[in-house]
Amino acid sequence: MSFVALHDIDPVFKKFSFSEELSNLLKSLDYKRPVIIQSMYIFKGVVELALYNVHALYSSESVSNVEEFLFQQPGIGGEVVPHQDNSFLYTEPTTCTGLWLALEDATILNGCIWAIPGSHKDGLVRRFMRDEEGVHFDRPSPSYDQKDFVPIEVKAGSLVVIHGDLIHQSFENQSSKSRHAYSLHTVDTVGCKWAPDNWLVN
C-alpha cells in the first residue's frame, strides 16, 4: 500500500523532497536540473509511529488526519517483483534515480530491498509504455536467479540511492514489525528527453 505525490501535496514531505541536502546529492550525481517525477509513502505495517517520526524531523506540527492511516498491520505489506526504475520513468538517454528513505529499520524479515549487484551496468531490459492499446511492457520479463540478489538492510534514517537500471525487488513483510519508507524518483531535464510514450503522462 502506498500514498503518492506527497512531494507536492504534503508540506512535510515537500520540505524533505526539496531540501538542500537532496539537491546537493543529485548535483554530486551530475544532475543538471533534476525534477521529481514520482514520490510514494510505502506501507509495510502500522504507520502511526513512522508518520510521527517524519513530522518530528521536519515540522513542529503534529500529523493531521493520522486516523486515516491506521489500517496496515505488521505481517502485511506486498511483494515487489524484480524491476528497473528506468522501465517506468524513461528518458532518452536514461536518467532516473530512485531515492529510498527508510523511516524504520529495514530488515530481511520485514521486507527490505534486495538487488543484483552490478546489474545497472547491463542496461535497460524492458520498458513499461503507453500506446493506443493501453499500458504494457514492450517484452516479457526475464527470469532471475534469486541467488544473485543481496539484501540491503538499513537503519531508520538511511537513504538508499538506486540507479535506474539496477534490478531490485522486495518481499512481503513476514515479521511482527512494520517497515515503512518514503521513495522519490528523479530524472534530469537537461540533455535528455522525457519519452512521449511513457505510461506516466508528464
UniProtKB/TrEMBL annotation:
The keyword Iron applies. One of its GO terms (molecular function) is metal ion binding. This is Fe2OG dioxygenase domain-containing protein. It comes from Rhododendron williamsianum. Coiled coil: none annotated. Keywords: Iron, Metal-binding. SUPFAM superfamilies: Clavaminate synthase-like (SSF51197). Its cofactor is Fe cation.
